[in-house]
């Protein structure tokens, strides 16, 4: 059997999660040659604790790329030329990157992978998470984006301190491809990795959103919301939870003034306990999704909660 080469691409912030060792342990079952490319905004000078089994680990400093350039995509394309598979650990801002890499490589792109079945077979949610599709690809050259939260570690994987090499940068200009970055500037944890997520929907006014933000800060939670609030300009685009936003898997999701539309619920399936506050007892989030709920007006409930935590 020919050994396949797999390149893993992820942001350095994701390294400490369980997804990387979980995926590496799956790939080791294929006897794959595995290399890791870490995207970072600062040089990696110290050894990093990584799973054993990587043939190479490199870092790419994407702070050197100017907005509007395709240099990051070209750099990764160059760095992974001899790989059969590219697995991109999904972060919202890496989705366009995966698409560009697929175009550059002429590769088959499968997004939102939640389970790896075989070298050419994976599973992904469809119909806003209502069904799971098993996707079998015939292409030799593939890119999959992985939903990191879906890959929990089942067995222990040995780790070791690993020295990373710098990946040389390819500068591109005038390609007409735009790579945009939205660095995570908040002190709150990122939505995709937060243990508690506080979510706001159309039922939350701008004034109540500041109360909810204060609750999030007291709980050390991430703050997200529905598309309605993003479109209203109350929350930044990267805060959107759902089918076309972030997928979350917190221990607790606190959903306020959110109806529970199918496209929103598609992003909260990994949540442990769902607590909802809504004035409508018939709202789908109350009837079908919440483990605990409070029927009431957020303008009364949220200040009372803030007072008590
Ligand atoms: C292709 C497509 C993709 C989409 N992707 C996403 C996505 O990724 N994420 C997403 O969120 N949406 C997405 N949407 C939009 C989605 O369909 C819903 O429109 C949206 O989720 C509704 O947001 P909401 O719950 O904030 O608003 P609403 O559905 O209007 O619900 C507001 C809720 O607030 C309650 N409420 C009102 N006032 C109060 C109060 N004072 N106190 C307490 N409760 C109150 C109401 O009872 C109601 O249940 C998508 C839509 C499409 C078509």
Automatic annotation (TrEMBL):
<keyword id="KW-0249">Electron transport</keyword>
<dbReference type="GO" id="GO:0033539">
    <property type="term" value="P:fatty acid beta-oxidation using acyl-CoA dehydrogenase"/>
</dbReference>
<dbReference type="Pfam" id="PF01012">
    <property type="entry name" value="ETF"/>
</dbReference>
<dbReference type="InterPro" id="IPR014729">
    <property type="entry name" value="Rossmann-like_a/b/a_fold"/>
</dbReference>
<dbReference type="InterPro" id="IPR014730">
    <property type="entry name" value="ETF_a/b_N"/>
</dbReference>
<comment type="similarity">
    <text>Belongs to the ETF alpha-subunit/FixB family.</text>
</comment>
<keyword id="KW-0813">Transport</keyword>
<dbReference type="InterPro" id="IPR014731">
    <property type="entry name" value="ETF_asu_C"/>
</dbReference>
<protein>
    <submittedName>
        <fullName>Electron transfer flavoprotein subunit alpha/FixB family protein</fullName>
    </submittedName>
</protein>
<dbReference type="GO" id="GO:0009055">
    <property type="term" value="F:electron transfer activity"/>
</dbReference>
<dbReference type="Pfam" id="PF00766">
    <property type="entry name" value="ETF_alpha"/>
</dbReference>
<dbReference type="InterPro" id="IPR029035">
    <property type="entry name" value="DHS-like_NAD/FAD-binding_dom"/>
</dbReference>
<dbReference type="InterPro" id="IPR001308">
    <property type="entry name" value="ETF_a/FixB"/>
</dbReference>
<feature type="domain" description="Electron transfer flavoprotein alpha subunit C-terminal">
    <location>
        <begin position="191"/>
        <end position="268"/>
    </location>
</feature>
<dbReference type="GO" id="GO:0050660">
    <property type="term" value="F:flavin adenine dinucleotide binding"/>
</dbReference>
<feature type="domain" description="Electron transfer flavoprotein alpha/beta-subunit N-terminal">
    <location>
        <begin position="73"/>
        <end position="155"/>
    </location>
</feature>
């Amino acid at each position: 059997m020919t050994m396949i080469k797999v390149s893993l691409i992820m942001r350095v912030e994701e390294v400490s999660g369980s997804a990387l060792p979980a995926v590496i342990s799956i790939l080791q079952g294929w006897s794959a040659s595995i290399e890791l490319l870490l995207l970072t905004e600062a040089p990696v000078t110290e050894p990093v604790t990584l799973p054993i089994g990587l043939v190479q680990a490199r870092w790419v400093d994407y702070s050197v790329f100017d907005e509007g350039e395709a240099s990051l995509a070209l750099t990764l394309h160059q760095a992974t030329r001899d790989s059969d598979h590219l697995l991109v650990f999904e972060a919202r801002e890496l989705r366009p990157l995966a698409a560009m890499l697929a175009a550059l490589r002429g590769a088959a792109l499968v997004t939102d992978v939640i389970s790896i079945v075989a070298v050419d077979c994976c599973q992904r949610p469809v119909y806003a998470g209502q069904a799971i599709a098993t996707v079998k690809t015939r292409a030799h050259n593939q890119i999959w984006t992985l939903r990191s939260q879906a890959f929990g570690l089942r067995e222990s994987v040995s780790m070791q301190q690993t020295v990373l090499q710098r990946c040389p940068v390819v500068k591109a200009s005038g390609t007409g491809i735009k790579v945009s970055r939205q660095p995570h500037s908040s002190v709150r944890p990122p939505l995709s990795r937060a243990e508690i997520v506080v979510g706001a929907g159309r039922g939350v006014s701008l004034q109540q959103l500041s109360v909810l933000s204060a609750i999030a800060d007291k709980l050390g939670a991430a703050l997200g919301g529905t598309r309605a609030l993003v479109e209203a300009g109350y929350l930044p685009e990267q805060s959107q939870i759902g089918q076309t936003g972030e997928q979350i898997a917190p221990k607790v999701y606190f959903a306020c003034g959110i109806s529970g539309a199918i496209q929103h619920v598609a992003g909260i399936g990994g949540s442990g306990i769902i607590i909802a506050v809504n004035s409508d007892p018939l709202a789908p989030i109350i009837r079908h999704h919440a483990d605990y709920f409070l029927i009431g007006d957020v303008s009364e409930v949220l200040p009372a909660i803030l007072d008590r935590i």
